[in-house]
Each structure stands twice: as C-alpha cells, then as structure tokens.
Design a protein that fits this description.
With 372 residues, the protein is of the alpha/beta class. It folds into two domains: 3-181 and 356-368, 3-Layer(aba) Sandwich (Rossmann fold), CATH 3.40.50; 184-354, Glycogen Phosphorylase B (Rossmann fold, 3-Layer(aba) Sandwich). It has 15 helices and 13 strands. The protein has a seven-stranded parallel sheet with strand order 3-2-1-4-5-6-7, with helices on both faces. Helix 10 (221-234) crosses helix 14 (332-340). The longest helix is centred in the middle third of the chain and has 14 residues, at 138-151.
Amino acid sequence: MKSKVIEFIKDLGNGGAEKIVTDTCLFLDKDKFEPVAVVLFDLPEKPNSKKIRENGVRVIPIYRKANKLTYFFNEIIGKRIYVQSKLKEIIRQEKPSVIHTHMLLLPFLDDIVSDLKGIRLFYTCHGAVDRYFSGKHEANAIAAQDLINKCQMRLIGLNKEMVEILNKRFNVDNTFFIRNAVDFNRFRLSESKSSLRAEMGIKETDFVVGHVGRFSSVKNHSFLIDVFEKVYEKNKNARLLLVGNGETFDEIRKKVIELGLNDFVIFAGQRTDIPRLLSCMDVFCFPSKTEGLSVALVEAQVMGLRIVMSNRFSTDVVLSDRVYILRLEDPVQKWADAVLNNESNIPPQGVLSDWDMNKEIKRVEALYSGQL
C-alpha cells in the first residue's frame, strides 16, 4: 500500500523552498508514495504550481484564490479558525502517513495536535534558525517545541551547522540533514553556449556575470549592482544577467538606469529554463545577506561556473574548486576583482555528485518510511 505524503507549504511560488517541495513531489517513487501538496494559497499560474499539476500531483489549496482579500481574512480570522477547520477536513479525507511542513506554518498544525496521532511529522527549516524561530516568528518556535514533545516531530536542516543549531535550540539529537539537491539531468544541454548567448542578445566576446534569485533585500541585488559597476569600469565587455523577479525589482531597475548601466544589464525575469541561462554566464556572483542553503549555488556549480559568494552561507555549499568567498564588509572593489580574476580561496567541502536529486530522493524516501 502506498504511503500518502502531504507537503504543507504557504504556496508554490518561485522561491527555493517551493522548488524543493515541487522536486520532492515529482521525484518520490510513485509505486511507494502518493505525494499531495497542501497550500494555504493557490497560485496556479506559477511555474512550480503548473509543473506539479502537469505531472499528476494533486494540489489542495486552503484558499482557492490568492488576493488581498484572502490574505486579510487569513490574518484577521482565517489562520486560527478557517485554516484549522480545513486542515482537519483534509487530514480526515486524505489519511496521510506523513506531513512535511515548510516555512512558518507550524502553528497551524499545533492547533490540531489531537488530529495528528499516528502521522509522522517533519519540518524543514529553510533559512537561518533565528529568522524562523525568534522575534515576530516566536510562535513558530513554540509550535515546533510543542509538536516535538507531543507528536515526536522530526526537524530537518539544510546544512550541518543548521542541524547542530536546531538540535541545541530544541534539545533534540535527531535533526536530519537533507541536501537542497537538484536534478542533474536538466543540466545536460544539447545547445551550444554561443547559440544560447545569441538568443539572449549576448556576444561570444562578452564577459557575463550572473545571478539567479528572487529580487528581495536579503539577496542584496543593490550591492551586486555596485560590484558590477566596478567590473564594467575595468572590462567594457562585461554584462550582468539577472534572473528572477520580486519586491525590489523596480528599485533595482531604477538604480541600474541612474548609474547609466541599462544597456549592460539584462533583466531576464522569472524563468523555468535556468540551466540554459546559467550556460550563458562566465561567473556567478551571489552576495546574499543570509541563506539556508542556496539551490541556485548548487545549480551554478553543476554547470561548472566560477562562484563569487558572501560568507553568509554554510560552507557545505562549496562543492567545487572554483569558489571565492568574501565578506559583505569587504570593499566593493575587492568583490569586483574577485569576479574578474580566475581565483578560488576555499577547497571543496563536499562531493558535488551527492547533490543529485536522483540520489538524494532515496534518503528522503527512507526518512518518510521511518527507516532513518
């Protein structure tokens, strides 16, 4: 008999956590598992949401529409009454063996503890532990401790340092390490680099600095623009390829125009063909302020790109000998020099092939089955 697995997440938008949930649902052995994505808000037009449905995985939304009205209703009344009722109904109907929760949704489960008996519970922390379990998100920490104590919920960390912090924070010793793995098969391209560049309006002689990620303050695009400005001063063939969308997009575009860099920065928008875009790049620059473990960095290394990144990541993500790490406090010029120079300053901290989703999914399946 198949084990039914509920992946519980806010939505299937464009973030890293959403990509992990999508890939988990797609890669689980369908002879052994039946994955179901339960989301607070339905975003059927988003690539992850489309992909998961097209591959036969059911998506069950708590709210059928995602708009200002439903967000407001959820904040005022829904998150303590309506969501609780809908979750109970879904659990009764679906009878899951596993519920794997993501992001900041643990308080919803804590409200229905009595309905969770006999279900294996997991929670993945997708970023800095303090970010998810303190300050305005203290309720998530309270719910986590309650679910650990009452339901033996198992925590999951995305790097070894996070695992240690979670163990200490919640006084447990069984937090599980799962890699933010990617499907290596997607990165075997038949098209040439030159043809892909031509499609993007990039010359073969151009030096392309790239970034893939949501436009948000944590991704530090403004700093990246400052770095590129210095790179362009030294190399007039330099181009910056930005992939993604988000709340700071307009602000960053305005800055690019004000600096006179508009003709040299390519805003590719939200894309699903990430391997093709990565193949157009020469170096991947990632100055994030904080990260759990970046899927984009793993993907860039699978494509063989040189990486210049901030020290705000776990070094678990260093999987090649082409990585240069800098502090965000370092001068912008030092970052620009690192982008231009073919140097590294840290050896690989892991084996890249271990981050293939086709391999990592076996560990996830063993975890869901109670074997780990």
